[in-house]
Amino acid sequence: MGQYVLRRLLIAVPSLLGISLVLYTVLALAPGDPFGELSTNPNVPPEVAAALRASFGLDDPIYLRYLHWLVAMAHGDWGFSFVSRMNVDSLILQRLPTTLYVIGSAQLLALSVAIPVGVYAATKPYSIFDQIANTLAFIGFSLPTFFTGLLFILVFSVKLDWLPFVYTTDVKGTGIHWALEQLRQAIMPVMVLGLFQAASMTRFVRSAMLDVIRLDYVTTARAKGLGQTRVIVKHVMRNAMIPVVTLIALQMPAVFGGAIVTEQIFRIPGIGSLLISSILSNDTPVVMAVTFVFACLVVFFNLIADVLYGWLDPRISLR
Amino acid sequence: MAGLTLASRSVERRGYSPWRETWRRYRRHKLAVISAVLLLVLAAAVIFGPFVWRIPINEIDFTARLEGPSLAHPFGTDDLGQDILARMIYGGRISLAVGLAAMAVSVIVGTLIGALAGMSRGALGHALMWLTDLFLSLPQLPLLLLLIYLFRDGLKAAFGPEGGIFILIVLVIGGLRWMPVARLVRAQFLSLREKEFVEAARALGASPVRQVVRHILPNAVGPVIIAGTIDVAAAIIAESTLSFLGLGFPPDTPTWGRLLYDAKDYLDIAAHWAIFPGGAIFIAVVAINFIGDGLRDALDARRVI
């Protein structure tokens, strides 16, 4: 298992390099000087501008520039934000926990909805429950997050006035009141993101369960006299989760897309809203760095999925 | 007697064609049929709407600001008193056009790469699949935003504000969504290229291009059609997302996403402004997804209906 994890880690490195190459090519191909803002922005002293140009090596040949950039990124030297007037890495580190908190809770919510519903629907295929679940799932992943977000605000904040629609980091109050307020303001973003995820996951879980439930070893387990719960949970689910893990990992880029939208709607100070605001204010180092962080997160979650995969199906880690 | 059987069989066979069979199977999926009708109505509304509903999209009327639905303005008005129905008809044209064009890009790129990877037996196939996997692990929305951020001004200067952004959005959305098509096409090609009928074509001296175009591709087209249908929906969502973030079409182009972006600060006093465009996006997307589902049932020859 340890060897398998190590091998997966080594595979993640080339894909990170590939992604960084794609990002850098995009930046290099862009028409005009992406740092042109420097010379016109009065907030940036000329020597800072010159140092930045040098740190990005704007006058070297392209492959050297890429290598320089890569080395700088690897050293944690991610540049300087013109707008926030601080180093990009500390800016991102400040914002990242909020994003991970929202995405993580949304994934947990999605799993805790999708697995029971998908499993139950698969044990009674084409029943009323299955049909309702299927239709709801279909509607769920056809509703774009920005529209559900607005609908949630409209219903729960404007009409019912139950939940706040602006997320704040400095919640007033202390102790239990503070914790409750934190939970309350996270409910809507997490619901929007989590239910969207749950919709597609339910379909994955259901079809994976249906594939496994027909296999002979399940009939054997039933013939041995095991109860329905035991057969489903211990025998069917464990094998059905293997393809589901892969499908969830493939969904990760979409999850981050949804997170950007959700953060923008509810004004959550995470890296998604940082990306939007820095695009609107032409803050190139931040835009590049945040995009790269998103790419790293996707690779990281794929890695986790691979490790889970090896744990669920030991044959894979032995290969 | 034998002649009679032959004759009756040919009468029975006259009505048979693969497309007619697909249609027969498609009709079984009630929701898919309803969705197809709904989508046709929506398409007809945005294509012919401006000839019937003649209020200009930018007619400002401060006496009718933020009004709810009424006879004069069935979908209400926005903060400048502009008619939301007229703006939605215009925006719908863009949303549907972006969806179709981006689907065309992703299907063409995906089919080309999938076909190349499926036909080559050497390093090229592996390299192309590595590329596909790399693109699959790219964070799509951030990259989409980055590309638009970097290339927006250049294309705007070259093709005008609306044309430039249209080309950019279509190319970028299509260029980030070809991977599922490429994988499907490759998988089909890997099995089809070993089939006897392809071997027969090869034995008769058909060039690789002819083998692909005449023999393999027509048999691999089913999954591509399904994936292409879903891609239209995904592209519409992607375009609306960009507009919703304020980074899509220019502010005076009322795409459905842009209408939502403008409406989101007036939710408490003018909810209709957000609900109608959002509902339009939802109806278009859910209809296309159901059509895809129906096509999946209809085109999967192994499934007995």
Describe the overall structure.
The complex is a heterodimer of chains A (319) and B (305). With 319 residues, chain A is mainly α. Chain A contains 13 helices and two strands; from the N terminus they run ααααββααααααααα. Chain A has helices at residues 2-29, 36-40, 46-55, 62-74, 88-123, 128-142, 145-159, 175-213, 216-223, 228-266, 271-280, 284-312, 314-318, and strands at 80-81, 86-87. A two-stranded antiparallel ribbon of chain A has the order 1-2. The longest helix of chain A has 39 residues, at 175-213. The radius of gyration of chain A is 24 Å and the shape is globular. The N and C termini of chain A lie close together (10 Å). The model of chain A has no long low-confidence stretch (mean pLDDT 81). In chain B, α6 packs antiparallel against α7 (161-175).
Query: Quick one: biggest sheet of chain B?
Result: none
Give the low-pLDDT segments of chain A: none
Helicity of chain A, as a percent range: over 70%
State the distance separating the first and last CA atoms of chain A: 10 Å
Rg result of chain A: 24 Å
- How many distinct beta strands of chain B? 0
Describe the SSE topology.
The complex is a heterodimer of chains A (319) and B (305).
Chain A: H1 2-29, H2 36-40, H3 46-55, H4 62-74, E1 80-81, E2 86-87, H5 88-123, H6 128-142, H7 145-159, H8 175-213, H9 216-223, H10 228-266, H11 271-280, H12 284-312, H13 314-318
Antiparallel strand pairs in A: 1-2
Chain B: H1 2-14, H2 18-26, H3 30-52, H4 84-119, H5 123-136, H6 140-159, H7 161-175, H8 179-192, H9 196-203, H10 208-216, H11 221-244, H12 256-263, H13 271-299
